[in-house]
């Protein structure tokens, strides 16, 4: 019998695969998920603006390697720099929601 037989919701699957909310493994999963979402949003916005990573970095006052790092969901992202990239580099507003 598969460990997935009694799974009926996506939340149950995430709990099974990554642990309950508040556990170290689940926190790491959630952090990586958020980094992935941000990376995809940045890539899409940059491509819609027809900018290379280098061009975006120059407009936002950062380095191409930093843009690449964000787009590949690697390392830590400084919030002030992320806001600058979106608002100055891409002329987009950024909003945060805390749940």
Automatic annotation (TrEMBL):
Statement: the UniProt record of this protein carries the keyword ATP-binding: no
PROSITE patterns: HTH_CROC1
UniProt xrefs under InterPro entries: Cro/C1-type_HTH, Lambda_DNA-bd_dom_sf, TransReg_Diox_bact_type
Keyword DNA-binding: yes
Keywords: DNA-binding
Gene3D superfamilies (UniProt xref): lambda repressor-like DNA-binding domains (1.10.260.40)
SMART domains: HTH_XRE (SM00530)
Residues in HTH cro/C1-type domain copies: 42-85
Protein name, UniProt field: Transcriptional regulator
């Amino acid at each position: 019998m598969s460990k997935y037989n009694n799974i009926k919701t996506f939340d149950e699957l995430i709990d099974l695969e990554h642990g309950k909310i508040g556990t170290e493994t689940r926190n790491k999963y959630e952090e990586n998920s958020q980094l992935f979402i941000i990376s995809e949003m940045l890539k899409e916005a940059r491509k819609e603006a027809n900018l290379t990573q280098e061009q975006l970095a120059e407009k936002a006052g950062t380095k191409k390697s930093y843009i690449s790092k964000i787009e590949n969901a690697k390392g830590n992202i400084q919030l002030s720099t992320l806001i600058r990239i979106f608002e100055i580099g891409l002329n987009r507003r950024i909003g945060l929601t805390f749940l």
